[in-house]
Automatic annotation (TrEMBL):
<dbReference type="GO" id="GO:0005829">
    <property type="term" value="C:cytosol"/>
</dbReference>
<keyword id="KW-0963">Cytoplasm</keyword>
<dbReference type="InterPro" id="IPR000816">
    <property type="entry name" value="Peptidase_C15"/>
</dbReference>
<keyword id="KW-0378">Hydrolase</keyword>
<keyword id="KW-0788">Thiol protease</keyword>
<dbReference type="GO" id="GO:0016920">
    <property type="term" value="F:pyroglutamyl-peptidase activity"/>
</dbReference>
<keyword id="KW-0645">Protease</keyword>
<comment type="similarity">
    <text>Belongs to the peptidase C15 family.</text>
</comment>
<dbReference type="InterPro" id="IPR036440">
    <property type="entry name" value="Peptidase_C15-like_sf"/>
</dbReference>
<protein>
    <recommendedName>
        <fullName>Pyrrolidone-carboxylate peptidase</fullName>
    </recommendedName>
</protein>
<dbReference type="InterPro" id="IPR016125">
    <property type="entry name" value="Peptidase_C15-like"/>
</dbReference>
<dbReference type="GO" id="GO:0006508">
    <property type="term" value="P:proteolysis"/>
</dbReference>
<dbReference type="Pfam" id="PF01470">
    <property type="entry name" value="Peptidase_C15"/>
</dbReference>
Amino acid sequence: MGSEGPPAPAVAVTVHVTGFKKFHGVSENPTETIVSNLKEYVKKKGLPKGLTLGSCSILETAGQGALAALYQTLQSAIGGKDSESSTSGKIIWLHFGVNSGATRFAIEHQAVNEATFRCPDELGWKPQKLPIIPADGDISHTRQTSLPVEEITKALAKMGYEVMTSDDAGRFVCNYVYYHSLRFAEQNGNKSLFVHVPLFLTIDEDTQMQFAASLLEVLASLN
């Protein structure tokens, strides 16, 4: 009859995705390509049941100077202005960043309340040992994602991807954005996840696009 199979999840999931522009030492950021092409890519593939792909935004690779834009992006997802961002379901923020030295994908478990930039960000800011959110206490304070990182990693590894869990998102812009996003998610009842990807030289573009689509499938299945 065609109606067999598991029922659709009771709670719809909307996933909003961000990537970054180029930055010092990385003239082409793979996450800009992944996130810019994701809607088109999953449209061809078909979205997992119960999942809506919300906004796909490219962030400036900057900390403090890009905060207003980051919060505008985060806020727009829960503002209900966008029909795709219905607050009746679950909202997950999925952030992609590049680790140019990596050989595999990394699902980040946490962010640390420390900004120590090894080089200036794209707006020229180079903090050293600064707390990201002073109200959270000192620079050793961490925030964890409420998503099951181990489970997500295992599911992706089973699909054949080179993937690991990580407890260290660095101290640069990726960690800075993740920390703010985790705090925002906690305050608004959403969830947030950061994923580091290698350069396209290490894992080619097609595999990385497949990985992003598979990750959406895994997130949809967590319901």
